[in-house]
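Subject: complex prediction, re-run

Hi both,

The earlier run crashed halfway through, so I resubmitted it with identical inputs.
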Amino acid sequence: MRIVIMGCGRTGAYLAKTLAGEGHQVTVIDRTSAAFKRLGDDFTGELVMGTGIDEDVLHRAGIEHADVFVAVTDGDNTNVMAAQVARQIFGVRRVICRVYDPLREEIYRNLGLETICPTLLGASRIQEILSQ
Amino acid sequence: MYIVTVGGGKVGYYLARSLIEEGHEVLIVERDAAKCARLRDELGVDVLEGDGCEATTLAEAGAARANAVIAVTGDDEDNLVVCQVAKHKFNVARTIARINNPKNQRIFHTLGIDVAVSSTELILSHIKQLLPAQSLLHLLTLHNVGVSFVELELPPNSPAIGRPLRELGIPDDCILPLVVRGGAQAIIPNGNTTLQAGDQVIAVSAEASDDTLRRILCG
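This time it finished cleanly. Structure:
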């Protein structure tokens, strides 16, 4: 699969390395070149510098041919905007978007985005452990 | 009207001041405490300190009873989220966003924002208005229906001069509602009207026919 990942923080970099290791064609977008260091020297995917809410940057990352777009920058708003652009402007079939704020996550899930809320996942896992 | 504006920078400041002068009830939402204090002191306006992207802040701001929510922060993604939360969570009738990257105009429209205002594009169009080389000026573009209101000035070498309008082959999806002659005389043209050099022509045109119209009138 062709996968575009926006945000090369811990989550983005880990995901990119894992997916590239599985043989997928991975492109990573980040605003700073320093972030790409997290990928290590043996990363086989492509790197694009810029902000993923800019149409031109997504275009450079080959968004038109992507099967999957993943938005995992540390900004909720950047993620939901880029995810919507990927889905509604570029027609990417599978778009996954991280949203830390549970309320915002609910709104965008209802709008049809595939969202992940680490805040809720973390909290409910801790609750689970406590109740064991 | 009750208007909630998000963002208390320069644009937010002057926007709130103008809206208050026009008699509207205005509440500004701003994250930065120092900016909030300044807005309260200088404008005497209601200010809520908080993040306008969060549903709880907008609830506190009374977004549910607002006639309009206007997002004017310096970040396009924040303005988009403010408007989408206002629209989908609080059913605000009119959402208006400031955009910084002019390319986002189309994106914001596709994503359901009622009005997106690009200061960059406004400045550009003003500059174009001042440049004589620009023969066709877009006064207003309604992207949702693909129609532009354009203004152009007939150059001395225009192929349209001296011939009745009906003979010019103007596309069916363009009409010319007004011609201003000598900067003073308004003419509502018909098929028999002939144009003169220096005439200012106002046209309503399908965006796709802009270029054809420009060729016919300006050469």
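Chain B has seven helices and eleven strands.

- K.
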